[in-house]
Amino acid sequence: MNIVVVDSGRLAGEVDFPEVNLGKFGWIQYPELEPGQISERCWRSDIIVTVSTSITQEVIDDAFKLKLIAVAGDVCDHVDLAAAQERGISVCHTPGLNPQDAACTQKICDGVIDNINAFLRGGNRNFVKS
Length: 130
What we know:
By secondary structure, this protein is of the alpha/beta class.
């Protein structure tokens, strides 16, 4: 299981994601990626975590193993929901939490991991409908 965080630097405050509830996984966390780097860094990802970086149809099409896009925050308008739905990729978010508010940062990190763990157990925590 490969998990890539594409823009952790867009969270206000100190970013500390708890560990995912998996025996074996890869976790790569970038503070920021340029638009042209996203497909290159995510093509083998099972899960992409994004604060506000655009996850376009091209990124979704290139990520052949992608199963989940986890939005670190409330707003999901930077994710191509139609492209995700077309590929059967789930999208979840952390409702009511603002990534620009440092007081919310740890709650967002915990919520993202809770969403991922729920998804891995077959649950649908905070899924976004397109």
